[in-house]
Amino acid sequence: MVETKLFIPGVYTSVIYVKVDRWLCTGCGLCQGAVFEMVEGLSAVRREYRLDGRIDEGVVGEELLPNVMRAARACPNGGITWRRLGGDFG
C-alpha cells in the first residue's frame, strides 16, 4: 500500500472518496489531471491516492475536490463518482 499524508491527525478534517467505473470508461481521457490518469487505455485513480493498490478507488484531500468535480462532470458516461468522508481519521 502506498503511504499518503491524508490521515495525519488534525491536518485534514475530511477526505474525498473517489471511484472510477472502468466498465463505463470510453478511454476519452477527459478526466486526466491531478487525481486521475489513464492506465491500459482506461481511466484510473493516480497511484498516490489508491486504496490498497486498487486502480479504481482512492481517497484525496479536500483541496483536490475541484479537480474531482471537474473530472466527474467531464466524464461522458458518468463513470466517476465521489463522496465526502468527514471526521477525524487520525
Automatic annotation (TrEMBL):
Which InterPro entries does the annotation name? ET_Ferredoxin (IPR052395)
Listed SUPFAM superfamilies: 4Fe-4S ferredoxins (SSF54862)
Cofactor names from the entry are: [4Fe-4S] cluster
| PANTHER family in the record | FERREDOXIN (PTHR39163)
Q: What is this protein called?
A: Ferredoxin
Organism ancestry: Archaea, Thermoproteota, Thermoprotei, Thermoproteales, Thermoproteaceae
